Amino acid sequence: MGESRYLFKIYYIGKSKYYGSQRQPKLLTVDDCLLNALLEKNYIESIKESGFEAASRTDRYVSAHGACFTCILKKEPILMEINSALPNEIGIWAYAKVPLDFLSRYNAILRHYLYVVPSPLSNLQSFGSIDIEVMRKACSAIEGQHDFINFSKRDNSEVKTIRDMALANLSIKNDYLIFQFKSRAFLRQQIRRMVKKILELGKGETTYTDFIQLFDPSQVFSYQPVDATGLILWDIVYSNEIELNEDPKSKERMDSFFLNQKLLYKHQYQLFHFLQHGDICK
Q1: Using the 8-state DSSP alphabet, how is residue 226 labeled?
Q2: Which partner from 3, 6, 141, 155 sits 20 to 30 angstroms from 53, CA to CA?
Q3: Exposed (0-12), middle (13-18) or buried (19+): which is 72, by Cβ within 10 Å?
Q4: Structure letter (DSSP) for residue 16
């Protein structure tokens, strides 16, 4: 067969050894691992000629459940063959053949992110009251079309800073605050900065009036975003013309990895609980 372009859906865990998803000189990234696996399994001849293109760029410590990339391959992909050359915390679980001019970044119609606040709600409340309703009010204010420059990292790469926010909401699951955001595109650090200000609002560290002022692009505000470890690129959506083929064995590999990690950290939690409280010895 001749060369064809494929769209892939992947997951990865934002471990400290990965310096984000995008390739960087002399630093290990998620994209490096994917390209090296494709080279090792003889799906591409070279990185330069592969036409590799990622749909989104994520920072260090950010994880993904449904990130996407496209690549021109010499043969039809066998996902478990490619996954065998990847570390367990990175995996491809679905793919689709797409036109040669298809771009995973610009053809995306929606991006869906989650942010799980690292500290349990009960722990946050031990330091003071948390106003959930005013945070939900702030989420509602974020929905719609706004200039989000004050919710982004200012640099010269972003000329247009107006975005349409299709969804911004807050829920509580198993004692954790979970934010969800949906938009066709996001600015750099936009989600982490929105969460930062919403949390400040909930803790009473800022007022709702001050929060609304952030939508005024004529004003400049300087502050740091929240920790990147809570951010997950949950999904990237394309038109119905793109039919993704999920690979059962690759999905099983992904689910097995998540289950093993959950059991590992649950055990570690118990170890530290006993070390702190010693209640098993009483």
Answers
A1: P
A2: 155
A3: middle
A4: T
Cα distances from 200 to residues 56, 185, 210, 232, in angstroms, run 28, 24, 11, 21
CATH of the domain at 61: 3.30.70.580
Query: How distant, in Å, are the alpha carbons of 150, 199, 216, 229, 237 from that of 209?
Result: 15, 15, 12, 29, 34
Q: Which residues contact 233 (CB under 8 A, 6 or more apart)?
A: 56, 58, 62, 63, 64, 65, 66, 67, 111, 112, 113
Distance CA 61, CA 193 (A): 16
Whether residues 219 and 127 fall in one domain: yes
The amino acid occupying position 50 is: S
Is the pTM higher than 0.90? The answer reads yes
Task: Give residue 279's pLDDT band: very low, low, confident or very high (50, 70, 90).
Answer: low
Tokens matching residue 98: 């797409």
Distances (CA, A) of 32 to 18, 42, 132, 170: 9, 15, 41, 34
The residue to which tokens 């969804």 are assigned: 167
How confident is the model over 180-200, as pLDDT tens digits?
A: 999 999 999 999 999 999 999
Q: Is residue 277 part of a domain?
A: no
125 & 101 share domain? no
Neighbours of 155 (CB within 10 A): 9
Q: Which residues pair with 172 in a beta bridge?
A: 177
> Domain of 123?
110-234
